[in-house]
Amino acid sequence: MVVRCGEEVSKLLDPFEEAGIEEIVEIMSGFSRDCEEVANIDKFQARKAVMSRMLVKSLQPGDVMFERISHAVYLAARGVVLVGKGPQGRKLAEMALWRVRAVDLIDRVVTTAVILVAAATVSVNIHGQWYTYLIDLT
Question: For the whole prediction, is pTM greater than 0.70?
């Protein structure tokens, strides 16, 4: 059930990355409803409200899990940016993501890091002299 719920949330977020908490909670509550029959609609609404508050809280900086996962994704992307998207870079990213059991995100992290490298390369080519000038001022 957890895997199916994760797949449904991924389907929601893949094409539309700006999906809100309400949409995510609606998917999660649907699985809760499938798992057990909810006879009382007030109980069901209260459960949805609790899920929503927990999800909002867990996505805030300062939350322990948010910090650990954010740091793991940062380290994974950093490994790919510094080493490359080859086997060594993927291995570094995999090790960082493994700590939070998010190895399934490896392809997304590598793709994002490759785009980040391309954007940085373009930025240096366009603004390189300006960056040098700023560094010389300090």
Answer: no
